[in-house]
Amino acid sequence: GIQVEQSPPDLILQEGANSTLRCNFSDSVNNLQWFHQNPWGQLINLFYIPSGTKQNGRLSATTVATERYSLLYISSSQTTDSGVYFCAGPTGDSNYQLIWGAGTKLIIKP
Amino acid sequence: DTAVSQTPKYLVTQMGNDKSIKCEQNLGHDTMYWYKQDSKKFLKIMFSYNNKELIINETVPNRFSPKSPDKAHLNLHINSLELGDSAVYFCASSQGGVGHLAGQYFGPGTRLTVT
Which one of A48, A94, A103 has the shortest CB-CB distance to B102? Predict the structure, then answer.
C-alpha cells in the first residue's frame, strides 16, 4: 500500500520564523490532506489539496501530485502554530481510508 | 454548533469493564470514522461507516463494536477493557469518503485510560 513520509520529524523555531514541512508519498495520491493537531489534542483540517497551491492566511500548501509530494508553508510563525502537522491521503484501494504520515512536531518558541 | 462532537472527553476505568463512546456530527456527512491515536501520536483507522453501513473494519479486536443508528451518529462500544486500550479515540466524518470535497473533520477526541 501507499506509504507516507513526513519531514522533518521535529522542528523548533523562534516566533516569526518561516517553515516548510514536507510530505512524500510512495505512490500517486489524488486527494492529499493536511491536518494540525494542537497541543490540546484537537485535530483540525487545514487543507484538502489534491494538486496545485492553496493559501489560508499565513499557511499555504502546494501539492505536486505527479512527483508525489506536498509542502506546507507556515510564515511568520506564532506560538499557536505549535503542535503536530499530519499529512494523509487515500490508500488507493479504498475511498474510505486515509493513510497517515507520522507527523512533524513543531514547537514555536516566544 | 459543534460540527463533530464526542462524549465523554475523558474516560478512566478499570480493566475488564465495558464502556461506550458516543459521536455525533451535524455536518450532514454520510461517512463516519473511528481512529485510535497511541502515545506516539500515530493515528490508526479502526472503522469506517458510510450511510450506516460498515465499510472499513481494520484489524481490531472484536471487543470493539461500532454501532451507527443513523448517518449522524457512530458509537463505539468496548468490552472487557485492557491496559493496551488506553489511547485517544477520535471520531471523524466526511462526505462521500475521504477522496471527496473538503476532507475529514474530527471530533475533540476521547482520552481513555484503563487502570
Answer: A48
